[in-house]
Give the backbone structure.
Amino acid sequence: MSERLTISRAARLTPRLAVNVVVLFILALVPVYAMLSGDSFAMTLFTRVLILALAALSLNLIMGFGGMVSFGHAAYLGIGGYAVGILAKEGIGSGFVQWPAAIAASALYALIVGALSLRTRGVYFIMITLAFAQMVYYVAIGLDRYGGDDGLTIYKRSRFGDIVDLNNKTFFYYLCFALLLAGIYLTWRLVNSRFGLVIQGARSNERRMRAIGFPTYRYKLVCFVIAGAMCGLAGALLANHTDFISPAMMHWTRSGDLMVMAVLGGMPAMFGPLIGALTFLLLEEGLSRITDYPNLILGPMLLMVAIYVHGGIDGLIGSMRRG
Amino acid sequence: MLYFIEQFLNGIQLGMLLFLLAAGLTLIFGIMDLVNLAHGSLYMIGAYFAATFAEWTDSFVLGAILALLATAAVGMALEVIAIRRLYGRNHLDHVLGTFGLLLFFNELVRLIWGPAGLTLPLPSEMFNAVEILPGLFYPLYRLVIIAATLAVALLLYILVMRTRLGMLIRAGASNREMVGALGVNIKLLYTLVFGLGAALAGFAGLMQAPILTVQIGMGENILIAAFVVVTIGGIGSIRGAFVAALLVGLVDTVGRAFVPDLLHGFLSESASSSLGRALSSMMIYLVMALILVVRPEGLFPAASK
Amino acid sequence: MADPLLEVVGLTKRFGGVVASDAISLTLMPGELHAIIGPNGAGKTTLIGQLTGETAPDSGRIRFAGRDITALPVYRRSRFGLARSFQISSLFPEFTALDNVALAVQAHSGHSFRFWGNARREAALREPARAALGRVGLAERDGMLVADLSHGERRALEIAMALATAPRMVLLDEPMAGMGPEESSRLVETLRRLKSSVTILLIEHDMDAVFALADRISVLVDGRIIASGAPAAIRTDVAVRQAYLGESEGAMHD
């Protein structure tokens, strides 16, 4: 009986597995391509893909697995980025201080936001998470010392002693790649652990979870904090990548972009966020090259995905085998 | 003191505009259970239509009426073509789909009217200051906004409380399935409600156009404030939207006017200025967070679920 | 006389002008199967809500295993040994039957702030879950997704989940709901087997089942308990016949 389940599960994975492997393979070779062709823009674009994929992964954790639709997730990108930027400006250039600070600050804000927001449900939850992101956005605009509305240039990337040089684009690319893969692996272990099952159960049927004895609120809160911390790391990476921080990192449309990436790729699939980030950013880039009005196409495309595609791209691939 | 009254009136004015947006949003939430991020786009389209039609007809009033009709038409067309396919889906799909519409409309407006904004001129008498209290002068047009939006609110009240359509709307807001079971033409009701919401949004957009702005993306900021209003007021409740809108309008306006000065007493010039600006922008969110902690479903939740 | 396991005293709940629960008092002795019957609208849902903690009573007390649980939240009651099944199956549809029950076991196996190990490989969770499924006759279906189970199997799964928490008492909310005669009699047999090992509070409409299983019956009408006692006594009680069985004379039979 369980043998049959294992075999069918493996068979079900094959098209999906193939796509994921191909994507990983292509991504692993991007720096090689960039070196050979001299196309450094590709490096920049795909580094951004990797970083935002990590952010989308953290959103997928709470949204796809936990059912918590957070519309303020870009706030953690911003908090992570600003932690790095502010410390850099104040003369603390060590990554060993900046990055933990980015993660800790994001985790702390997630704790506060989560503690308050998780008392609400449905649309109210969506709105209150949006509101909390707006608060951070406006605080950032008010920080005159750190650029305010115009943002702040970071002159020196995070230093990690003499071991690594984040200014080396190839190295930075593979660092982001490694961190993303680590994030995917950690997420995978998390969702199949006791903790992960509680989170998934709470998404599936919270009333029943309480009836069998789970204090769901505290588990959801911890999950929310973990996701915030992960996104804070992505923010630190983003600040290093663009050498720049600004309130625009946390604009609510950025939160919208992250949601698009998570849904597009397929929730709660493990590689969904990567596929989603890749697709979305390539689409954005590609469309802006062929037309001056890319959103005339992108907008309706998002609408069509929302209407017709259940389970995102991952769902499409999965159904290809069944169909 | 006079300054306070002036800001108070500005707050009422903002509140009334927010109410127009929030009323449409809360109806659409409550009846169709739809999160609509494109609502701000209808607000923007109303302003753009008004600016264009006013220029063609050389009359603000005529331009406004045409814009109202056009926006309602666009709203209903949108509902038929796109929005109705999102009913019954989870909120995330709504966010995704209407986010796409928002991007689309911003781009479409840029294509048709160009990236620079428009202006909607008024007869200069409108900007005369009226002495409403000894020593207090307030622009006539701002009074017109308050009066006009109050009139619309009153009409909305009559529509919702005294007509058959309104009864269906109220019933739908508190129990969607029942209304369908009663044999009412649900599809038509939904289209009309969406059109009504669009008209209200368009009206708000065109009314504020002469004194504030007609530009791409103008819907976004006020949309979030409108969501805050709906959340505070309670989904599905127009009464809640009215109370919350006034609250939010006043908190935001009066907050922005006085918080920096309040801080001035404690902090340095520059610190109080930047902190003050940040704090006053955050005021409405703080209020919302506080209210939700005490009443997680808003002040007057209408939906029974 | 042993102490009652469950003691409800003067439980009252009003919704606007409607008194859904009117000073309800009842006791449950350990090991018994106590059935609550009553016409639709009698207030069973409200009573269940107050017993499980989803509804707060306006007044009255609930004592369970010697402790006042009136103010205890839902999850706490479950941890304290008061399990329930739902009238409308409330399961985890995307998971297998075994996963469903294992979650119930997990809720009572210490805390779940474990982030690394694969919970589906924890024998301490899977074995008791299999055992619970076995008790309700679902051992063969443990790998099926809930969505693929029949109605009767889902009702049985409902009960398995309640049992998996190793409760002192199980509150069964219309377990026979929507079942055909064959499935019903199978469930009655299952419950008969369970009687000896767990205290059961059974809310049911199915009179055959009630009279086959109950040690005592309480009758709830318009929010009040109008009669309580042995099945034979209830069957002949005049007030009960009038209030409940007056419309369907043939409902009660030997």
About this structure: The first strand of chain C starts at residue 6 and ends at 15. Confidence is low (pLDDT under 50) at residues 249-254 of chain C. The first helix of chain C runs from residue 44 to 52. Strands of chain C lie at 6-15, 18-28, 33-37, 59-64, 67-68, 82-85, 169-173, 199-203, 216-221, 224-229.
